[in-house]
Each structure stands twice: as structure tokens, then as C-alpha cells.
Amino acid sequence: MQIYDLEADGLRGLNAALQGASGNETGWEVVNPRGSHAIAVGLDAPLDVTVTGSTGYYCAGMNSQATVRVAGNVGPGVAENMMSGTVIVDGDASQYAGATGHGGLLVIKGNASSRCGISMKGIDIVVGGNVGHMSAFMGQAGHLVVCGDAGDALGDSIYEAKLFVRGSVKSLGADCIEKEMRPEHVEKLTELLEQAGIDANPSEFKRYGSARKLYNFDIDNAY
Amino acid sequence: MCGIVGLFLKDKTLEPRLGEMLTDMLITMSDRGPDSAGIAVYGTDRDGQAKLTLQAAEPSQFEGLAEEIGKEIGARIEQRVIDTHAVLNLPQDKLSAARQAIKRLRPDIRVMSAGDIIEIYKEVGLPGDVAKRFDIPKLTGSHGIGHTRMATESAVTTLGAHPFSTGADQCLVHNGSLSNHNALRRQLAREGVEVETENDTEVAAAYLTWKMQQGHSLGEALEAGLGDLDGFYTFVVGTKDGFGVVRDPIACKPAVMAETDQYVAFGSEYRALVNLPGIEDARVWEPEPATVYFWSH
After folding, report:
1. Which of B252, B269, B285 is nearest residue A35 as measured by Cβ atoms?
2. What is the pLDDT of residues A127-178, one digit of tens each?
3. Residues whose CB falls within 8 Å of the CB of residue B235, separated by 6 or more in sequence, listed in order
4. pTM here?
5. Using CB atoms, which residue from A54, A75, A114 is nearest to B251?
6. ipTM > 0.85 for the complex
């Protein structure tokens, strides 16, 4: 296990070390994050990184292959544009968690704020608590699992992302509707909850997705 | 961008350290706003006494000011000059007369704040330099708010810096931009509420002052603002004994709050809060959009 003191040794050094880490140095602990931005970004190796404390913007952005765990809260844009790998946040996440993510799994044990999973393109996101307004806005592919409640305009202008919410939904956004929960959806949801290590009963969730009415030009949709 | 910080102390033993803690928070937010910085601090109440914070281009403009104004209004005025600012202590019932006299006798001197306990210091330049010029770490008090500015809506000038104070012991800092400030400025002018600058934030401050003059509480004024102020905003406001936070319904502008038994703290980013005592065990959360948060002593 490599221990990296972010306060003493600086951010550039950390990201250079993680991006250049060879195969036999896979375990890392980052101490003293103190809300710094861009911690553990652009990783492209099967590393196992634990950040002890809370981070600022863009933690674990553009991740491929690595597992990044934050033992604290994260600021805006955690795991933004993730390609693969796993990012786990023990606390809460600020705005646009997992935005534009293409793949991999983002787990937020606490609550996520507004625009969680905005423009998601294949990432799976599991939130233990609530998500804020405009979550999964323009979601194109992947899954958003919300074990708590969702705020206003869930799934606004959604394409093909699949949304599962256990609690209440304050309102659905344009073209987002409740959909039938078929066996394959229960199966996928069960798998995601298991992967996330979150104990929740899949039968308590409702599924939401696109009504597909915005796909083609319709004069009634023009304002 | 802009950076906002705020600290509302519940534990009186921290009051001597207010300026020091706020300065640390302010400097941490320098890269959100290097154009100018400002701070409002609420100090100790002195029976029957009021305070005026003034600003001049040169400290020499304050020479003889206290005597001159004092003679004009028939009151004894204490004056403390700190760089380009001066704080006048004077009897509460002479506050309005003193403001009139300053306007008449020294039109180049600007009033930054007026009230029983508020003092505002703001200037262009890096937050660290501004804090040093006014010796902000030495300030004591029960609560305060600060701002680092990245100018978007008006020029980089001292008067364009935050906080804005448009009413007694009131102040407001803002991260964001308002889209209907010109219309609102005209509406306020028709109501007899004048603002001094072209800055959108001053309009928001004046709007809240106007609402409170009509008998609304600060909480009610902030609620009304959610309907009338259009744009992106995170506001932190101070009153004589209170501290409030509100974000617009979209809530793009960042905000983090922390509360312990000793204080309530606000930062645009969590970074600003990391040196506060006991932050590891504080309740940390992101204020909800279109929700008014308020604490008072």
C-alpha cells in the first residue's frame, strides 16, 4: 500500500504517480485531500485508490479500470466521463455526479445533488439516498438506481437510460414516463444493488424511461 | 465564478478569532475570484452608538473628517482610519444627519455600510492583499461574510466589490448573475429605492432592503426574492443578529454548509471550511435549491 500525503506532496505529483503506476503498486491511500479538486483523475490501470477525507470538484474523472473509493463527501462532477472501473463515495455527492459517463459503476452511499447522471452514456450509478432535480437529464444509456427519493424533472429529455427509483419522484421531466418492471429489469437491478453493496429490495422500485416522443420532430413539441 | 464564505458563531469563545477564520476562508477562495475581495463583520454592540464605514480613494481624505462632521451635526465622533476605509462611531440618533453631512461636505467619500455594529471592508486586488491592508485577521465579532469577486456584470472597482449594504446592518454577497436587474432597478427607483452602482448584486441587496422596509422579515424577503429575482444566484446575507443563505431554483452555483455546536459556516467549496475547528465531525450538507436557510442569535 502506497500512502500519498496530498497536502505535503501536491496534486500534480499524485496524478502523475497514479497515471504512471506500474502493475505491482496497485494499492494507494491518499491522505489529507482537504477538498482539493481533480484528485485521482485520468487513471487507466486496475489500481485500488482510497481517498481518506472529502474531495472537491471532478474526483476520479475520466476513470478507466481503477477502483476509487472516497471515505468522505465529494464535490461537483465526481466520476465525470468515466469509461470503466468503479468509484465509491461513502458520503454525499454534489452536482452532476457521473455526468456523461460511458461505462463503469459509480456508487454514492449518501445523497447525490442535482443533475446526477446528466447525459449518462452507459455508466451505471447507484445512489443509496436521494438525488436532486434534473437527474439523468438527457440520459442516453446506462442505469440510475435511486434508493431514496428523486427531485424535480427526473429524466428530462431522456433517451435510453433506465431509471429505478425506490422512493418518491417529485416530478418527471419531459418525455420521461413510468414503465413496466419486467423480469429482466428486476434481474439487472438486483445485480446493480449487489455490486454496489446496498441492501434494498428490488421489488420496491419503480422503473422510469423514455416515452420516445422527442425522437422525431413534432410540431406540438415546438415552443 | 466568485467565492463566498460566511461564519456565524454560536460559541462566544470563538468571537476573538472571527477575523482570522474568515480571512483563511477568504484566501482559500482566491482562485474563484481574484479581482476584488470584501468582508462584512458584525462586532460588539455599544449602547446608543452607531457605526459608519467610509471609503476614500486616499486615506488623507479622512483628515479632519470626524471634527468637521461632528461640528456640523453637533455630536462627538470617534474615527478610526484603516487604509482607504474609516470607521466612525457616533450616536445612533445622529446617523442619518451624519450621512447627509458627509454627502454634502465630502462628496468624494463613499459610505460602505451603516448600522449599529456592521463594518465593511472591500477593495480591488487579491483577497490575501485586501485582508492584509485592512488587518482583517484582527477583527472580532459574532458573525461575518466575505466575497472574492470574478467580475461579470460590472467593472472591477471598489464599489463593484461585495458585500453590498443597502440598509442598516444589512449586507449581501452573491455568486452568480441576475438577468432582470435593470428592470428591477427601474422598479425600485420608482419605489424610491436608489442604488449607487451598475452592479446586479446591489439591486438584489436593495430589493431585500425594500421588502424589509415594507415590514417583511428577512426570511419573507428572501422567499419573495425567489419569485422576483431572475438569474443564477447563491446569496449569503447578514443582518444585525442573523445569517441567511438562499440559492435560486436551478442552483448551478455551488454551496456547502457546515454546522457544529460552535458555528454555522458557508463556503462556495468545501475547501474553504477545512481549517475550521471540529470540521471533521460537523454536519456538512449542500443547501437545497429555492430554500431559505436562516440562523439568528
Report:
1. B269
2. 999 999 999 999 999 999 999 999 999 999 999 999 999 999 999 999 999 9
3. B172, B173, B174, B204, B222, B225, B244, B245, B246, B247
4. 0.95
5. A114
6. yes
